[in-house]
Amino acid sequence: MTTFNQGDARGEPGRGFWIGLALGAPVMAYGVAELLRQAGWSRAVAAGRWLAVGLLLHDLVLVPVVLLVVWLIGRTTPRWLRTPLQAAVLGSGLVLAVGWPALRGYGDRVDNATVHPLHYGSAVLTVLASVWAATAAWAALRCASRARWRRARGPSAAAPGSLRTSRTPDPG
Amino acid sequence: MSAPAPRFTSALHDERTAAWLGVALGVAFTTCFVTGLWSHLQQDPPSWFHLFARPAGLYRFTQGLHVATGIASIPLLLAKLWTVYPHLLRRPVVTSVASALERVTLVPLVGGAIFLLFTGLANINLWYPWPFNFRTSHYWIAWVTVGALVVHVGAKFTTTRAALARPSRAAPAVAPRADGPDRRQFLGLVAGASGLLTVFTVGQTVWPLRKLALLAPRRPDTGPQGFPVNRSASAAGVTDAARDPGFRLVVDGRVRRPLSFSLDELRTLPQHEATLPIACVEGWSASRTWRGVRVRELLDRAGASADARVRVQSLQARLAYRSSDLDSDQARDGDTLLALEVDGEPLHLDHGFPVRLIGPNRPGVLQTKWVHRLEVS
């Protein structure tokens, strides 16, 4: 496994990059030119601004928040619960993000009840309930598996903070 | 001299995880691009593009796939960007002209991907909080993003192939932390998140799963006469004109005998029944049984040529999509109808009363409602 923390000697672009650039740059240029031609300068710039803001919000807000949440859960919960809880919290965030326009009624039309026809508060809660039920089942399995593992190996085997390899059964 | 990058303790910030997610995203974005291109060609066909009528459900499939793949891509993209996030903070920022260029092309790649998924998600909710046209921007920024994707694939091809070729059970260079998921779990969770969003939205086009479409902005079984509406008669400003007892349907243009029919006269013509989907660009679709007059019947009565093209015009006087074109194949298809009924009832006003176009393999926005004229060319 090569993590991205291990320097960038392997990351220097090679011949493939130049081939990709030769093929991809005209496609990008075509897209920009047609966007400018069809949307007009001010609307194309507005679209570009939305693109840039989306990128900045992701890199400077969303990822740091996710890292913080993952770190906080890692610091405050027992090991068997960490991954399921992290998955459930991030999964819930995803469900809320995808359901947000419907929850808030963005796009609703007074003359058209077929846009967002459901009661999305209940609908989203139902989806979240399924996420958390699956998480609870998974966490319970991990907890039971960890207890079995401890019983089989004895209490000294569960040294806190010990590293495991990919061949080692997951104690939770 | 290289400054140490901030430490990311998860062993999932690795090439193999990024490679798997990259391959999945590459497939997903290519699928979206091809199906999006297809939809765009349907809506704005260039002169060389031949619109064909069969298979009848092709557009329903391609556009359902486009939207479902886009939704499933959201967790894939977020996971991929999280995996490679340490690259963003790498020092030095650039090491050569090539690395600088590569970094620059990540702006349209990542920014474009986020833009496409966000605007696509908003569009299926009919939510347009921006000051630009959705279709133009979504479509052309897709070209920019795909161009940047080609560059990225070129840059990462060797690394990706090497990362995927490595035996998955080989001893890792860095041991995973005891409290985090391993790669297989992580990828499984990402796939699970994509699956979750798919299961709770795809029912907007996959009929048997409609009751599960809890996160979908539309339900294919909900609306007047049991299916959704995109633009109502009042939004189109046609309520009075559509209900006018003096309504006439005109067939004119390049014909030997221009025709004009009242609604009652249309009902006396031979009626044909066809079960066809109405498949919206926003990804929902519903199959219904339509009944009305074949377009080719009207063309034959008017003495139009066999290769005639038809512009179908709505009573709608403003807004986009107030007319649509039928290629000769589509116009001559036996299931291309000017429908007067759906599921045995006269059309609801919001579904195009008194007359709407319905034909096989067409985007919903081109199934023109409140039709009052067929202009033959």
Any overview of this molecule?
The complex is a heterodimer of chains A (172) and B (377). Mean pLDDT of chain A is 86; it is low at 5-9 and 158-172. The relative contact order of chain A is 0.06. Chain A is mainly α and 172 residues long. In chain A, 70% of the residues lie in helices and 0% in strands. Chain A has helices at 15-39, 41-76, 79-104, 120-153. Chain B is α+β, with helices and mostly antiparallel strands. Chain B is 44% helix and 14% strand. Chain B has helices at 15-43, 58-83, 85-88, 97-124, 134-165, 183-199, 233-236, 239-243, 263-268, 295-302, 328-332, and strands spanning 249-253, 259-261, 272-279, 285-294, 310-314, 323-326, 337-342, 345-346, 356-358, 371-376. In chain B, strand 7 and strand 8 (345-346) form a beta hairpin. The longest helix of chain B has 32 residues, at 134-165. The mean pLDDT of chain B is 92.
What is the strand and helix layout of this fold?
The complex is a heterodimer of chains A (172) and B (377).
Chain A: H1 15-39, H2 41-76, H3 79-104, H4 120-153
Helix pairs in contact in A: 1-2, 2-3, 3-4
Chain B: H1 15-43, H2 58-83, H3 85-88, H4 97-124, H5 134-165, H6 183-199, H7 233-236, H8 239-243, E1 249-253, E2 259-261, H9 263-268, E3 272-279, E4 285-294, H10 295-302, E5 310-314, E6 323-326, H11 328-332, E7 337-342, E8 345-346, E9 356-358, E10 371-376
Parallel strand pairs in B: 1-10
Antiparallel strand pairs in B: 1-2, 3-4, 4-7, 5-6, 5-10, 7-8, 7-9
